[in-house]
Amino acid sequence: MIIRKRVAAVIIIVFLAGLFLVWGLANWVVVLTEERLKQDANDNLRSEVLLAKSKLESALFRDVFLVDSLATLFNIDPQASSDNFHEISTRLLDRAENVRNVGMAPNDIVEKNYPIEGNEKAIGLDFRTVPSQYETVQAARRSEDIYIAGPLELFQGGQAIIARVPVFTDYPANKDYWGSLSVVIDYKSLMSSAGIFQIKNADIAIRGRNGTGREGEIFEGTAETFQKADYQGVVIIPNGEWWIAAKFESNLTQEQNYLMELERWSLIGIYILLFFSVFVLWTFYRAERHRANEDVLTRLYNRRFALRYLHRLLSENYRSSSFCVLAIDLNGFKEINDTHGHDAGDEMLKLVANGLEAAVRASDIVARMGGDEFLVILNRCRNQKQVDGIIEKIRNFVESQSVQAQGVTLYPSLSIGCACSSEIGQNKAALLKLADERMYENKLSIKKTQS
Predict the structure, then answer these.
(1) Over the chain, what HEC string results?
(2) Where in the sequence is the domain holding 364, given as residue range(s)?
(3) Residue 297 maps to a domain
(4) N or C: which end of the chain has fewer CB within 10 A?
């Protein structure tokens, strides 16, 4: 029973240790999976941001260069272009996607706007009275090219990006300044059409107001997004640039979290299934092996196991250990069988077997060698006094037990012979022979005493 408890304890320890390792492995696999999923999500978000950036550049260039074609007409004939401003602007807006209105400002004073509706407040505006806007008008004049202003707040209300184009009546000398043309691009419409506002799970920030690039003012998002950005890139605009940053929030979906938990518990489940499959196979193997080494009647070890165990004790690895063997014979067993029957004999054998197991130490081996002969292997014997004490305990315990047969109480009587490895050395046959001889001597002594 003690051996079985030890085996059970070892199995439990091995199982728990394996479970701990598999739990760690499962967590490691889940962490790797989570990192991979987040990386995939980040890659998808990066692709989404790059696509939105590309669309933003394309939409801005398309709308801005419409005003460039309008400026060409004004450079050729300012008067005719001014007279037909509404007709020309109508065609321009039909081709535009995010243009809110088109304005002309000879001498930097807004004279016409198209469409007029919603832009009445801007008519008559002298840019020189609005420093923030006049600065952009002057910048376009100095560059003699398209200048992107904004995003900024319009005089007539709303936020927009303004593409300003200077008009010179002496093109290409560009000395005689006529005024400027402006294409007002709706900021929110532009960003929405590019998909900037539709990007989920990412904080977007853009800087570079008035096309000043990376060092410019932030006009979308926060500075924190730039500080913790997972992606930063340049947005090319006419004669300038913006700088876009994105901080990804790669939160896994509920389904992905569920699948990762399923992956974790699947690994643990597979381990438990494999462990118990191996355990069942091992149990069957151990049971078969035990049956091969077990005496059917008494459930003690059989002769084959006892001899193999002795051989192992006498091998090189065990020679330093001193042990003794007890050859035990049941006195009067034939008479019990003949007088009371084989059932009574079997009960007596089982009684003796149980008594021997109960009387010896947990480290000792008890085997039935055949018939009424038993062998006890006493491991780690320190001296003869210890051996004599064990023999006395066996005799007193076993011979105090009894069985009932046909109304008669039968008590066992044992003949015991002892031989120790220290006497014989490493000869198994000689060791067993000496134990048998001493057992027969003890049997004769008992017979003489009884007679």
Answers:
(1) CHHHHHHHHHHHHHHHHHHHHHHHHHHHHHHHHHHHHHHHHHHHHHHHHHHHHHHHHHHHHHHHHHHHHHHHHHHHCHHHHHHCHHHHHHHHHHHCCCEEEEEEEECCECCEEECCCCCHHHCCCEHHHCHHHHHHHHHHHHHCCCEEEEEEECCCCCEEEEEEEEEECCCCCCCCEEEEEEEEEEHHHHHHHHCCCCCCCEEEEEECHHHEHHHCCEEECCHHHHHCCCEEEEEEECCEEEEEEEEECCCCCHHHHHHHHHHHHHHHHHHHHHHHHHHHHHHHHHHHHHHHCECCCCCCECHHHHHHHHHHHCCHHHCCCCCEEEEEEECCHHHHHHHHCHHHHHHHHHHHHHHHHHHCCCCCEEEEEECCEEEEEECCCCCHHHHHHHHHHHHHHHCCCCEEECCEEECCCEEEEEEEHHHHCCCHHHHHHHHHHHHHHHHHHHHHHHC
(2) 303-450
(3) no
(4) C
Kindly state whether residue 33 falls inside one of the protein's structural domains: yes
The one-digit pLDDT tens for each residue of the chain (451 residues) are 444 677 788 888 888 888 899 898 888 888 888 888 888 888 888 999 999 999 999 999 988 887 778 888 888 888 888 889 899 888 888 888 899 889 999 999 999 998 888 788 888 999 999 888 899 999 999 999 999 998 988 776 778 999 999 999 888 888 999 999 989 999 999 999 999 989 888 999 999 999 999 999 999 999 999 999 999 999 999 889 999 999 988 777 788 778 888 888 888 899 899 988 888 888 888 777 777 888 989 999 999 999 999 988 888 655 657 899 999 999 999 999 989 999 999 999 999 999 999 999 988 999 999 999 999 999 988 788 899 999 999 999 999 999 998 889 999 999 999 999 888 877 889 999 999 999 999 999 988 887 6
**CATH number of the domain within which 410 lies:** 3.30.70.270
Write down which residue in 261, 292, 323 finishes a domain. 292
